[in-house]
């Protein structure tokens, strides 16, 4: 009898929760209007950003070569005026050079007056509680209570003579010297005059950098390797990697195949170390800037053999930028229990109407595995980290409210469930990955 009642209760719940494909635009709009203010009250954890000033070269471990910016990221985007108005009470209706000067001066004035509080105040304005600073090194003008460091590890891929890599195209000509510089900074950090003669010692050096960076406050390691080589990683033996290391560490130019084999081994070593040290692995998984970024060779699905490898079950992977523009396939990689998605960049490249559709598909698939990031970056004086924070947060919150409004109107989720998903996406899902380190 008891179980019959239980069955009946279950059946009525299911009946009440029957979803349907056509909601009226009016319904969706009413729910959206009711939902958005509640979503605006959720304090955000920003899972991916590059806070800093435009003249600070440490905002990234690489530099953007001049390339074709998509429409919304151009300085002609009128939304930047709205951003400047919201953040700085900008008095003009356009960003003409003489008006933009007002904005540049205003930021300089505030920066001088507020010091370390400048970027924290910006987070307050956008209701971001805490955010990642994915930077080469941390800046003394970012308050460590509000900004947590994610450091880059790609430079460990490039210990040999890189002349051949540099010559591949103009972009690599910019990137390679910066990777070499980054490797030297890690060597300086560990008081190393020159790189060790054998692989075992080189791996120890890498592990020491990871551990020291963790002590300095680093919460995760970041790969932007898609900019430098294909992201399909083979599985060479240690002996193979060792032979190549020994042959080229003192000089000589490795062939492309030799370099890739060595890097495949280093990549997998870093992934394993991420598991040992509880240091999540962030991977750039989307399109990238520059004229030579190879989309097919850096396709997010190339990582599938790594992500689904049970040997790396202890490593947490975060697919930064959600594999865009393959985000609809990429979300299925989050079926793996240690794989998470980050939507940064998606909500800056896409306008809210398009972003809403992608986010909705994510929410309908693995809502507990998706995280929010702004990918804020100081592009130039007018489109600074400030404006890109605003753009990311605006699109994130409005897109989220719109996606959830459609799901509620279609009977897919209750309002309570929708708000739980909103908290997960904007804050809780990411925070859980760094227990005791972020909030
Ligand atoms: Zn980024």
Task: Provide structural commentary.
- About 2% of the residues have low confidence.
- Helix content is 47%, strand content 8%.
- It has 16 helices and eight strands.
- Strand 5, helix 11 and strand 6 form a beta-alpha-beta unit.
- The N and C termini lie far apart (47 Å).
- It has 439 residues and is of the alpha/beta class.
- Helix 9 crosses helix 10 and helix 14 crosses helix 15.
- Strands 1-2-3-4-5-6-7-8 form an eight-stranded parallel beta sheet.
Tally of DSSP β-strands: 8
Instruction: Supply the number of helical segments.
Output: 16
Strand order within the widest beta sheet:
1-2-3-4-5-6-7-8
Q: What is the end-to-end distance? A: 47 Å
Strand content: 5-15%
Oligomer: single chain
Biggest sheet record: 8 strands, parallel
Give the bound compounds. zinc ion
> What is the C-alpha radius of gyration, as a whole number of Å?
23 Å
Indicate the overall shape.
globular
Question: What class, by secondary structure content?
Answer: alpha/beta
Helix share of residues? Answer: 40-55%
- The topology string of helices and strands comes to HHEHHHEEHHHEHHEHEHEHHEHH
Query: What integer is the average pLDDT?
Result: 94
């Amino acid at each position: 009898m008891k179980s019959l009642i239980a069955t009946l209760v279950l059946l009525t719940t299911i009946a009440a929760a029957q979803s349907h494909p056509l909601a009226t635009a009016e319904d969706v709009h009413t729910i959206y209007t009711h939902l958005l203010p509640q979503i605006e009250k959720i304090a955000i954890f920003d899972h991916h950003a590059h806070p800093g000033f435009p003249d600070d070269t440490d905002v990234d471990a690489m530099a953007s070569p001049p390339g074709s910016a998509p429409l919304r990221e151009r300085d002609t985007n009128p939304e930047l005026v709205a951003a400047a108005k919201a953040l700085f009470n900008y008095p003009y209706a356009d960003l003409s050079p003489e008006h933009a000067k007002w904005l540049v001066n205003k930021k300089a004035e505030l920066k001088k007056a507020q010091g370390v509080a400048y970027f924290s105040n910006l987070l307050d304005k956008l209701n971001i509680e805490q955010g990642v600073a994915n930077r080469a090194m941390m800046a003394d003008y970012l308050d460590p209570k509000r900004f947590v460091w994610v450091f880059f590890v790609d430079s460990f891929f490039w210990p040999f003579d890189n002349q051949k890599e540099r010559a591949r195209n103009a972009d690599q000509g910019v990137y390679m010297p910066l990777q070499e510089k980054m490797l030297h900074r890690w060597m300086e950090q560990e008081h190393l005059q020159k790189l060790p003669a054998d692989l075992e010692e080189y791996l120890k050096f890498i592990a020491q950098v990871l551990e020291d960076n963790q002590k300095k406050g680093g919460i995760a390691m970041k790969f932007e390797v898609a900019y430098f080589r294909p992201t399909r990683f083979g599985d060479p033996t240690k002996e193979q990697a060792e032979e190549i290391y020994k042959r080229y560490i003192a000089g000589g130019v490795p062939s492309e195949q030799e370099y890739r084999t060595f890097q495949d081994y280093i990549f997998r070593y870093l992934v394993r170390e991420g598991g040992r040290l509880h240091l999540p692995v962030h991977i750039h998984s989307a399109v990238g800037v520059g004229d030579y970024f190879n989309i097919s060779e850096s396709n997010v699905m190339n990582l599938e053999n790594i992500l689904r490898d049970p040997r790396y079950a202890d490593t947490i992977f975060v697919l930064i930028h959600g594999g865009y523009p393959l985000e609809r396939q990429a979300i299925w990689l989050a079926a793996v229990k240690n794989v998470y998605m980050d939507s940064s960049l998606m909500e800056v490249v896409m306008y809210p109407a398009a972003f809403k559709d992608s986010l909705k598909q994510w929410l309908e698939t693995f809502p507990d595995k998706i995280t929010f990031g702004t990918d804020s970056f100081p592009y130039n004086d007018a489109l600074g980290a400030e404006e890109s924070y605003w753009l990311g947060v605006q699109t994130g919150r409005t897109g989220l409210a719109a996606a959830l409004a459609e799901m509620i109107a279609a009977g897919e989720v209750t309002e309570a469930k929708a708000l739980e998903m909103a908290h997960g996406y904007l804050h809780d899902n990411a925070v859980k990955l760094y227990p005791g380190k972020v909030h």
